[in-house]
Specification:
It is built from 2 helices and 3 strands, in the order H-H-E-E-E. The protein has helices at residues 3-22, 25-40; strands spanning 51-53, 68-71, 80-81. It is flat.
Length: 100
């Protein structure tokens, strides 16, 4: 499979996952609790952007609205196409989310 075809397939799968997600209130509630636990542990005093890597369709942003959502392909709910192995942002511009 070519890289272009793989990216289109990934984006299509993310869109399908969002459709399934919308129809599963229990799953959304479980993830919302998980996301709220993550949000409670973010040290907002640490400078830098909060970035979700592998966001899929960006559900984390429902709880952490300022989060920059990234994935291998751009799809609904993803702010930026990003490859974790070759970040386009300077490492220092991304928050570790934890205080020292």
């Amino acid at each position: 499979m070519s890289p272009e075809l793989a990216q289109r397939s990934h984006a299509s799968q993310c869109d399908k996952n969002r459709e399934v997600w919308e129809g599963k209130p229990l799953l959304r509630a479980i993830y919302r609790d998980f996301y709220e636990q993550i949000a409670a542990r973010i040290a907002h005093s640490v400078p830098g952007k909060i970035v979700e890597v592998g966001a899929g369709f960006g559900a984390l942003r429902d709880v952490i609205p300022e989060c920059l959502t990234t994935d291998l392909t751009k799809s609904l709910g993803v702010d930026k196409e990003e490859n974790i192995y070759f970040l386009s942002s300077a490492t220092a511009s991304i928050s570790s989310g934890r205080s020292a």
